[in-house]
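lol ok so funny story. i was supposed to be doing the assay writeup but got distracted and ended up predicting the structure for this chain instead. priorities right. anyway since i did it might as well share w the group, maybe its usefull for someone
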Amino acid sequence: MEDTGFNMRDETHFPTFAELPGDYDLDLRYYDDPGSDSDGITEPIKHWCLLAEIVQQIPHGRPVFSVRDKADERFTVGLFLGNRAVIPPSWARRCRAGGVIAIMYATAHDFVGGQHGVRVEEVENVMFFPCSLESFLRIGDEVTAVPATSKCAQCDQPSALQCARCKFTRYCGKDCQKASWTSRHKNECLAVQQVVDWSKRDWEEFDEYWMD
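and the output, tada:
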């Protein structure tokens, strides 16, 4: 696989909360330096995504979550999306405790009341997945493994089939495919699709914001 800078264990592009740039900081790890002769507008110099597992939804007038990142640090994520934001119908199924929230271009924010977390204002920058963070990171390891696995995901035997949705997870036959779907892949397939897509993108060079 071509080196695109994709590694979900690496904090360069998949930082922990502690490694995020601040809302009002010119963090040169993430942004260019506009210099004294510019209009002061900065742009990212690379792509990054914060991954966290939802611990619980906090009762509030807007979507607010207590989450934990891959360093097991707990913090708050608040979605301030505006009245005209179109909320994807799928959120109702995926936005739950034990699932993953993925936030592109996340920045650390200090909320009123002293809580530290992430404030999200663009609906396009948020994705939810119905699998655990541990499963999500394992999928990242599997997608970037060289050579890619050709064994059945259920029984580890040589495979002849692949999932029609993610086109990555492999099976030796229909029985194993059905068993895997029921026990695990139903909740992981969407994450596999996203990770496969991410693995094909260049995370090192910022060209435009990736909006889904």
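The beta strands are 49-57, 64-68, 74-79, 100-104, 108-110, 116-120, 126-129, 161-162, 170-171. The chain has two domains: 17-131, 146-193.
back to the writeup now i swear
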